[in-house]
Amino acid sequence: MSEKNKYYSIGKVSSICDVPIKTLRYYDQIGLLVPQYRKEDSHYRYYEHTQLLTLHIIRKLRLLGVSLKDIQRIIQNCDNAAMEQCVVSRMHEISKHIQELQDQLAIGEVLLQRLNTGNVFLQNKNQDSESTIRIEKIPLYHVISTRRIKLDYQNSDVSIDRWSELIELAKKYHLKTMGSIILTYHNEPLEQFYNKDCDLESCIQVPEPKDGPEFKQFGGFLAATTIHIGKNEDIIQTHVKAIKWIKQQGYVINGPISEEYIVSPIDVSEVENHITKVIIPIKRV
């Protein structure tokens, strides 16, 4: 018997084509791939050689995620044009899904980096607060930002509306956000803790600028920095100690003070694990 005239049992087809018997029976049930021959006495099902070739086509399309309904239409109509259109459509969907996964991976990598940084500070949280103050050059990078007067501002509040606005702005310009959210107080030092209204700017790093008033640069200056761990309502003490230290070291404040939320309330719920970096621009007297 030639190969083309040979018949194959369902078990043999399952083995040759690496398709479960249960799946073959389902294909038979829905009329997608019906065995060519059945023995009347035993009701055993047998496939012919060309059906094995068809099964390979079905399997390949299923691996691409093509629906059984579309596969059935392609197979029954022997429609190569429909197959091509279907494959192109699936490739587009797969590419989109890959991009979404890459975006999720990027978000995870940024969050993990910040959590790792936060854990380092948590391990050293028993150090004297003044010993964590250091002078550093803040690197210059592109940010997307919003700035306006926030009425009845409370430093203990989480500016979730501003933070959400930044994320939406980044989406509007098809940009990925990088790093932590930074709040900058365009007031006199410590004024945000006492005045009802605050000139508040929120920003977050982006890979590149776009045309628009929301884009600017942050950094490029010398700063005294320190770390605050815990409740945000207590951060005034960290500010006061840093400002006192700056004066003692012969520096003066040279710009608005910022807070970088390395591990924020929108990252972890435990208040004792919130990590904020206070950034105070300075220059020599």
Automatic annotation (TrEMBL):
CDD domains: HTH_BmrR. PROSITE patterns: HTH_MERR_2 (PS50937). SMART domains: AraC_E_bind (SM00871), HTH_MERR (SM00422). This is DNA-binding transcriptional regulator, MerR family. The keyword Transcription regulation applies. Coiled coil: none annotated. Keywords: DNA-binding, Repressor, Transcription, Transcription regulation. The keyword Repressor applies. Pfam families: GyrI-like (PF06445), MerR_1 (PF13411). One of its GO terms (molecular function) is DNA binding. It comes from the Bacteria.
